[in-house]
Design a protein that fits this description.
The chain is built from 2 helices and 8 strands; from the N terminus they run αβαβββββββ. It is an alpha+beta fold and 156 residues long. The longest helix is centred in the N-terminal third of the chain and has 18 residues. The protein is globular. The N terminus is likely disordered.
Length: 156
């Protein structure tokens, strides 16, 4: 009888251990995108970016146009509501706009977006907005600049 109780106890312990769901913390995500942009697109009165050229080319041709008038990438969902930085080479002015969708006709539609557009030389920083999975990096000053976008874990 003792043997039976011991076996049932061991079996119950093993079954209980196997049925406990694993409680794993969500792994923090970090996204880094590096690129370059050849032609600046600043030009409005506020000296912020005009995204139309990059949007039009990207809609028509996809990623192969990255680096001419701007740079487009998909935001990692794990970085939403996390801090980001956008840094460029010396003398470059960079803006970034997060779009809810790309749209189909950049001459007629203006999809919802959330822009970071501080005028002048330098990059941008802030929080990656929810509901805007497409990012457009734009050069306002200084031709042929490189940039690094970093979001999520470890960004201060």
């Amino acid at each position: 009888m003792r043997r039976l109780i011991a076996l049932v106890g061991v079996a119950a312990f093993i079954a209980g251990a196997l049925s406990v769901p694993a409680v794993a913390g969500k792994k923090a995500v970090r996204q880094t995108v590096e690129g370059s942009i050849l032609v600046p697109q600043g030009g409005n009165a506020a000296a912020t970016c005009v995204y139309r050229a990059q949007r039009a080319l990207y809609i028509a041709m996809g990623e192969q146009v990255n680096g001419v008038f701007g740079y487009t990438f998909t935001v990692d969902p794990g970085t939403v509501n996390k801090k980001f930085t956008l840094e460029g080479s010396a003398g470059a002015g960079l803006d970034i706009s997060f779009y809810g969708e790309l749209g189909t006709d950049p001459t007629a539609d203006a999809p919802g977006n959330y822009a970071y557009e501080n005028p002048g030389v330098g990059g941008e920083s802030g929080l990656v907005p929810a509901g805007f999975p497409n990012a457009f990096v734009c050069l306002t000053e200084g031709p042929n600049s490189t940039f690094t976008y970093t979001a999520g874990k470890g960004v201060k």
